[in-house]
Each structure stands twice: as C-alpha cells, then as structure tokens.
Amino acid sequence: MGAVRTINATEFKATCLDLLDQVNSGTIERLEVTKRGKVVAVVTKPAAPAAGDLHGFLRGSVIIPPDLDLTAPTGGDAPTDAELGILHR
C-alpha cells in the first residue's frame, strides 16, 4: 500500500506531473497539498468502476407494450422530413 504524503503548494506546482504519476502508480496513495500549513487539496487515484457498473445499467428502464411490434414498418407511404429536406421542426 502506498504512503500518505504532504507537500506545500509551491513544491506541488514544480513537481506536479511526477507526483500525479506516483499517485497513479500507487507509490503515493494520498497526496495532501498545503498552503500556509493548511490542507487545501487531496489527490487520490479514482476508484476503478466495477465491470457491471456500465454494462446493462439501463436494463429495466424501458417498458415496451406487449402489443407493439418492433419489427413492423413505420410511417407508411408518407415521405420523411429528411426526404423532404426538413432539418428541424
């Protein structure tokens, strides 16, 4: 597990990219940036999303009536707005 490191804002500014790489690699687990002795920012690595968080997150949010045929043609013979050159209504 990485260490907790406290650094003043001036030093953070000078070594920011290296410090962010260390946080990303886990060398530093928590980086506290101070100004005049007070912590003003905390830098940590973001939590990795769980595999199931993104896939299927909308499942169950759409209800399709049982009598609706999703494979049936729509619109009939009337020309569509795109065919008529209408961009906005």
Question: Care to describe what's here?
Answer:
- With 89 residues, this protein is of the alpha+beta class.
- Helix content is 28%, strand content 24%.
- It has 3 helices and 3 strands.
- The protein has helices spanning 9-25, 51-54, 81-84, and strands at residues 3-8, 28-35, 38-44.
- A 3-stranded mixed sheet has the order 1-2-3, with helices on one face.
- Strand 1, helix 1 (9-25) and strand 2 (28-35) form a beta-alpha-beta unit.
- The longest helix is centred in the N-terminal third of the chain and has 17 residues, at 9-25.
- The N and C termini lie far apart (58 Å).
- The mean pLDDT is 87.
List the helices and strands and how they pair.
Blueprint (H helix, E strand, L loop, with lengths): L2 E6 H17 L2 E8 L2 E7 L6 H4 L26 H4 L5
Parallel strand pairs: 1-2
Antiparallel strand pairs: 2-3
